[in-house]
Specification:
This protein is α/β, with parallel strands linked by helices. It is built from 15 helices and 10 strands. The chain has helices at about 1-35, 55-60, 65-70, 80-90, 105-110, 155-165, 185-190, 200-210, 225-230, 245-250, 250-270, 270-280, 295-305, 310-325, 335-340; strands at about 40-50, 70-75, 95-100, 115-120, 125-130, 145, 175, 195-200, 210-215, 240-245. Strands 7-6-8-5-9 form a 5-stranded mixed beta sheet, sandwiched between helices. Strands 3-10-4 form a 3-stranded antiparallel beta sheet. Helix 6 (about 155-165) links the parallel strand 6 (about 145) and strand 7 (about 175). The longest helix is centred in the N-terminal third of the chain and has 33 residues, at about 1-35. The protein starts with a helix and ends with a helix. InterPro entries: SsuA/THI5 (IPR015168). It comes from Lentilactobacillus hilgardii (strain ATCC 8290 / DSM 20176 / CCUG 30140 / JCM 1155 / KCTC 3500 / NBRC 15886 / NCIMB 8040 / NRRL B-1843 / 9). It holds the Pfam family NMT1. It is found in: Periplasm.
Amino acid sequence: MAYLKVKHIIISALGLLLVAGGLAGCGNKQSADSTKGYKNGTITIPAKNGSICGAPNYIAYEKGFFKKNGIKANLVAKPTNIADLEAGFASGKYDALNGDFQYLPAIQNGAQIQAAGGIHQGCIQVLVPKNSSIKSVKDLKDKTIATPGQGSTPQFVASIALQHAGIDPKTGVTWKTYDYDLLAKAAQKGQVDAIGNVDPYAYQAIKEDHFRVIVDNNNHAGNNEMAKMGMKKDGSCCYLYLADKLTKQNPKKAKAIVKAYQEAADWINKHPQQTASILLNKKYVSSSKFVNQKNVSNLIASYHFGLKKSKGKADVTYYANQLKQAGFLKSDTNVKQLVNKAYYDG
């Protein structure tokens, strides 16, 4: 009797093992099926932050440019803290990023990413409330400027303008940090004197609350006043970044990602209205009275999307020199060596 009981237990245990093995096999099959047809595998992109300049991420996904190039893309929330982004790339959590020249100091300090091309022109402004006594960058001396974060591109844009006006960005102003959507309110309440922000938040502050533009880093027209503030004519504001593990260990996949973004950027440049519809309808960008189809279309057109490889490298070199002068790169930085480290020419 005891023998039969033990036999029954053994048979039951074997049955459970077989079921578990079958489920594991099924799970492996489902995992394989999820990437079937994607010869270059999966990538994860920290894309979602509500900004219009992230359009290449969304269009590459929505219009099938990732899939066309054999990539299964996962779009996730973008951390506001650059340290979290660095950690994500170092750990292998993230693979690609549509970001700004703000990552140059991070790359110098060991961030495992490389720029692969300039992807569009300016989307950042330094603004003051409509009744502010501040009329120019020189008036920002000893004032308080708020940006979305220390080391953010709005802070760097403001800093470049400050140094061109003879103001030390490290000691000549006070910096504060607020979330993108709270910056304008902070200035209206008198908590800060000026703000640096990205579109659509900057655009909304201009249109809805009548903020005045002190600095605009989109200098496509070659405005002389902006040029004097260090805003490069036709300079790329945002870049495509790839993880080092791709550029150095999987160049085939890296090139496929670059191609997907290049095709998406070209499509955006030709179809600003359709791009705006996708961004708003899919809730990648939150709509409002002024952040609407017409205005978002106009903004997208003004960014002149298109992946620029060699010109992008020249722009990175320019901004590296500017950030060195502003004290955000080490004083003994060899800019040429840094750019060679920071840029993917594949």
